Amino acid sequence: MSLTENLSPQELAQACAKSMWEDDNATRLLGMEVTAVAPGEATISMDVTEAMTNGHGTCHGGYIFTLADSAFAFACNTYNQRTVGQHCSVTYISPAFRGDRLTAAAREVSRRGRGGIYDIAITNQHGEQIAEFRGHSRSVKGTLLPE
Fold first, then answer.
1. Long-range contacts of the stretch 114-120 (C-beta < 8 A, 24+)
2. In what order do the strands lie in the sheet with 33-38?
3. Among 13, 81, 83, 114, which is least packed by CB within 10 angstroms?
4. What is the pTM for the complete model shown?
5. How many CB atoms lie within 10 A of CB 48?
6. For 55-93, how does the pLDDT look when each residue is reduced to its tens digit (9 = 90+)?
């Protein structure tokens, strides 16, 4: 009997997120916080710091992308199958500023065979949409938790 066999889908998703969190230096060291996780879903928040602003005085798009990519990664790794990003795109809608609290909410659109599609909405503390991200995932060999 495997260690994960008796876990509910929600418990499995949470255990996978905990395992990923421990090894995800980029997400942790940028001050991101996983605020919710469920099968095929994840929500991560981050405060925009001065170090994240660009020459226009707005949040550098790379940090917004990174926040969305982290939510994508946590969402597509909720099934204890190692999964990586295969392709992604982002559309920036509104600027974010120093002091803003950004939230990336990822949801699974499709998961078939080894591939998945995830949409991630990035909003600020006022609920205003900052960006939209779409990620295509690919399952690879291995699990996050011991079988």
1. 114/138, 114/139, 115/86, 115/139, 116/76, 116/83, 118/40, 118/72, 118/75, 118/76, 120/68, 120/71, 120/72, 120/75
2. 33-38, 41-47, 101-112, 115-123, 129-139, 83-92
3. 114
4. 0.95
5. 23
6. 999 999 999 999 999 999 999 999 999 999 999 999 999
